[in-house]
User: Fold this.
Amino acid sequence: MSRLHLGRAPLTYIICQIIVILFFGLFTEFKKGADPHGGPHAEEVGVELIKNHYACFQDVHIMIFVGFGFLMCFLKSHNWGSIGYNYLVACWAIQITILWSHFWKQVIAYYEDPSRSFEKLPLTIETILEAEFGAAAVLISMGAILGKCSLFQLFAMSNFNVFFYTLNRAIVFQIFKATDIGESMTIHTFGAYFGVISTWFYQPKQAIEDKHELGKSNYLSDLVSMTGTLFLFVYWPSFNGGAASGSKQMRAVINTYISLTASVIASIIVSRITKGRKLEMEIVLNASLAGGVAMGSNADIIAKSYGAMLAGFIVGCVSSFGFAIIGPYLTKKINLHDTCGVHNLHGMPGVIAGIISAIVISRGGENFGDNYALNFDGTRSPSKQAGFQLAALATSLGFGIFGGIVSGLLSGNHNPFFEPVPVDHFFDD
Amino acid sequence: MSRLHLGRAPLTYIICQIIVILFFGLFTEFKKGADPHGGPHAEEVGVELIKNHYACFQDVHIMIFVGFGFLMCFLKSHNWGSIGYNYLVACWAIQITILWSHFWKQVIAYYEDPSRSFEKLPLTIETILEAEFGAAAVLISMGAILGKCSLFQLFAMSNFNVFFYTLNRAIVFQIFKATDIGESMTIHTFGAYFGVISTWFYQPKQAIEDKHELGKSNYLSDLVSMTGTLFLFVYWPSFNGGAASGSKQMRAVINTYISLTASVIASIIVSRITKGRKLEMEIVLNASLAGGVAMGSNADIIAKSYGAMLAGFIVGCVSSFGFAIIGPYLTKKINLHDTCGVHNLHGMPGVIAGIISAIVISRGGENFGDNYALNFDGTRSPSKQAGFQLAALATSLGFGIFGGIVSGLLSGNHNPFFEPVPVDHFFDD
Amino acid sequence: MSRLHLGRAPLTYIICQIIVILFFGLFTEFKKGADPHGGPHAEEVGVELIKNHYACFQDVHIMIFVGFGFLMCFLKSHNWGSIGYNYLVACWAIQITILWSHFWKQVIAYYEDPSRSFEKLPLTIETILEAEFGAAAVLISMGAILGKCSLFQLFAMSNFNVFFYTLNRAIVFQIFKATDIGESMTIHTFGAYFGVISTWFYQPKQAIEDKHELGKSNYLSDLVSMTGTLFLFVYWPSFNGGAASGSKQMRAVINTYISLTASVIASIIVSRITKGRKLEMEIVLNASLAGGVAMGSNADIIAKSYGAMLAGFIVGCVSSFGFAIIGPYLTKKINLHDTCGVHNLHGMPGVIAGIISAIVISRGGENFGDNYALNFDGTRSPSKQAGFQLAALATSLGFGIFGGIVSGLLSGNHNPFFEPVPVDHFFDD
Assistant:
């Protein structure tokens, strides 16, 4: 047996895991249908919650671990670094999202009513669905710095990311009462700009130079990556509709489904126009999913399906041109090295989705008639609600950028503490 | 930035997509549990529909994009052409199946009662499940010409395919009132013979010659293909049972499950008998699934499970001998170049399934007793219903063959409009 | 056409399959919601059973065929032998588990009340979920001898395995009335020790020597294997919770989910400590799943989630050290050649899980209060129930070891009947 490699990283992981176990012991309890002391009513609630949400939860769970995991496998010599880190980072993000999310909810509840006493964190199926969403935000940010950072840096980044993600989410949903069912703003926009800003702290020039030519895909790695794309494509309706129920959920499912088919077709058209007859893999692998991002803020509030199809088509075109033209241009002009192109798939489509949601809501009175109050905050006019959507977009952008700077400053490649990857080992397992 | 490649293909795609968006805008509306103007009852309907069908819908969705996609990846140099085209063609087929399906339903309803006024296309979860079925028919036909055609040709083919598929389906279900829960006849038989007939329009002699020896699998491509086989195997019970509910659904699920285990065992036996100890990959990859096809018309109407097991075993043997002996024989004798062997997996088993369904139904009185009217059209005798099953099989075959000829004539390799693939690039990405 | 290869193996398969079809014909019937003669009540039961269990059943189904199948693909030249045999063996195990399971249930019921008449085997969704569990036990045992045995030997082994698995299960659940919701003891412990004991009958010295160096993974095979790991990770909550409902199911889901995230983190810590900065793939691929095994006996009875997290963390560490240190040590000392390391992933964690369940139950009174009788046999005291848990662990171990010896003696590599693999073809397709 070789000697043991103790050091900063494993000790940090052990301490953090023990702290989380302690916090779970002190502050959480099974509730709502999982309660060991619940009566017959709790049993019924449990049965219903499982029936309503479990299948969607599992679909989202696959998206996080299989979908994101394989999508990031396009680098030809970094498959383990991609799918392995994805696995580990997502697990950590899940644990801390549960804790931080409840913390900020309590802070805001206290701020609104200081006489309120602390509530224990209720563990139900909704809690773990929310945890997956936190992992999604972290993984999107990870996509931008993939291959240029160590696992320890990703561990640090995920802590900053979840801190700001849960704070922003509490503001957007509890104070702004914005509608963002599949979280185009709070996950995609936030995560993408967090990641994009971070990239400047991970030696972008050297990454762009890519001396060993490893920052590329090959035939096989693109095929592996397609696995991720397909699982994300198939299960995205569950991502956007998983937390809803009734007509909101069914519209969310159908709109996301329809929007995605249109963005797939958009991606093939742009690939064909910009690159000729041969399929351009990078575009199809990524931009085809933009229709899912576009529906994140809109899936349940679009009352006519052609709107979803049109939005998917437009966002699919924007994202495809992002991969074909805008991305390379930004790389040249501002040294933006965004490994997975998260700005193209999550950033721009997320911003557009937020803007569309404001437009759709401003027409909410016509589209939903008597059901307006069922779908939105009934105490506000549609135009006021639209304003809050834009405010939600702005804070998501703001926290993303600010968080990315904080994370980059504290755990970027200039800081030797988090075991930065030497430039010679960029994009290499 | 390189110059833009505008041309016939992308312009056609753009125009078609815009037309579909317009048609969605003019003729569709959210209904039955997705209705934005529905009352509390609509909400309940939405909750129930999601609980009943959503998990199955997602399973079928995986089958179409991951199952079919990877199953077609067995060609060693055509993985992108297989899985990428599968992705794009399926999305297009979904969109137009929704529209054409409603069109033919309206035509037949009008023919039966001319005083009826036009109804808008209702978008519910059942609509999108039906759309997946349309994509399945297209992808089966695509399997026969895979590697010998361009994406633009596949786009053309999918339009002809969906046109005839939806027409045949409306006749089979609305006029014949046949029972075909998992659509052995309307999807598998139709799709397979559509594809097989088409192959003669895609230079079969040159494809058989296969000068560059690319029309084959290798170790890795067979493994990738296995991914597709396994997802199809696992989720097939959802394909056959997804549209049903209650005891019909549970029988459909269990019969399909049991039938598939028997066809897997049949495929290994025939592989062993014809090829010796080494697993013959092509047989196991494909013929093992024949038990699912066999249950397409029968899953819910077989009242005793040994019948499902026996049918799966027999069809598994037929399909395996198809791959081992019948297929190569037909290639030699009539120049049939069927890339994925859809005749063996979908064609013959589909026809057998239709015939079995007639036999099973002719004994429906004994098997279902008082519940006969619950499972079949109560106004018909079992033997009359059996006759309609055979009629359904005949029209499915007929539309398949006729549609395949039309599609081949208009978009085959002799027509330069749809960018045919030069023989030198057959089976190559 | 080449000549036909008839012989012992295919004839045995054919005869066995025909016998199973006969037994299905004679002894099974659709029941509980699948009954073709059921009234309106049966229809409702069918709808409810599908809603409650179908999604979980499908998740487990994926685990068996995709999860186990790909997990075993880590051998660089044995992918077909791994995933193909997994496919075939699992199908056979499913069929016979259904029959043997009912047989032993009837035997024990007769033993308890000899006046009872024979009941037909009821086919419902619960039957096929149980069948999957039988396949899991067989596949775990298969993991230990993978690459060193022929398909015919695996076929023989699966028959012995299912015989003992169903017998042990009947004793554990019907006589001991132990609680083992996800079957840590009856599947994982039983299957692992069955397999580990068998290995001595498959030329362990030659397997350890591994003359052609094929008993190893490479970069690509580890990536393929990761697919299996991820599907097992994601769907494990359905494995542990699939047979339950209400609050038991929700706790089972959440505890398994939380336990797994902790064992993933444990595996990365141990990998880091024992192997340094580069991810040690074997550890992450396997030990990260130990948290699921740990919850098999405990998922529903742990009333405080930190317990699940702590158990997952501890078992993850044990399993990881198993792969890093204990496994290699046993190989050296006692010639234990356990191809997939099932002792590390299923054996030790299974035993620990059983012991934990006894400890947890002994405190059941405090944790469940008035609901104790709802979650456990109300006629027994917690400490008595804890004793029965240990008895269940002991019989699972006992039947595993005894069954493994019987299976090894009768179908090991010294017996030419089952077509043993020559040492020169170990780990090679």
User: Anything to note?
Assistant: Residues 327 and 333 of chain C are 10 Å apart (CA to CA). Chain C touches chain A through 64 residues (CB under 8 Å).
